[in-house]
Every structure is written in C-alpha cells, then in structure tokens.
Amino acid sequence: MLAALLGSGLLVLGGPSVGSAHAAALCSGHKVRTLSFATGRTVVYKNDGYVCAVTYPKRGGTRQYMSVGVQARGNRVVVDAGRYTHHAGPVTVHAGHRCVRVTGKVGARSVSTGWILC
C-alpha cells in the first residue's frame, strides 16, 4: 500500500510542471519580456549581464522554420535558425550594461525589437 501511494505521489510530482521546468531550464535568470506575434512568441531572460532568448511556436509538434537572434550593441547578432518542432534557441549573449536587439520568427511571421534593456 505504501509503495502504491509513494508511486502515485511521484507521478503527481512529475506531472504538469515537467513541461514548465524544461522551458525554464532553457534560459537562466528572470524573464524580462515576452514578444508575442501571430505564429509564436519570443521570451527574453536576463541574468548577471547575460541576455538569453528562445522562440516558441503557437502550435508545436510539427517541424517548421524558426529562428531567434540576440545582438548586444556593438557586437554581431547571434542566431539559432532551422526547422524545429518545439523551439529555436536558446541564444545567450553577454550584454553587460549595453542595449540588446532581439528577433524571433516562426514560419513567415516574425517579431523584432529596437534597442531594449538599456
């Protein structure tokens, strides 16, 4: 009986929060922006001078073109692009106290910021 209860308790602990724990593990730090667009969203995190971003599709599970890019002012843009099923990225750059530009794309639709987090 105890083994059955323990087993069911473990199943509950490993339930719905697993997906959110995986998403949170992609970028460290705290979420500072969510950039929503027609086919997805790009989420931006900041941690000790580093900026990290991930692009998620509205409808995951099918392979489609996605990209995410982060550029610290004065540096080159760092991009992850390809045909993915769940997300593009994470992409992390050291920004220090500099502004950054973030882009995200799923299919034909995209989002782009100006200089942010200055």
TrEMBL record:
Key words of the record: Signal
First and last residue of the signal peptide: 1-23
This protein's name: Secreted protein
Taxonomic lineage from the root: Bacteria, Bacillati, Actinomycetota, Actinomycetes, Kitasatosporales
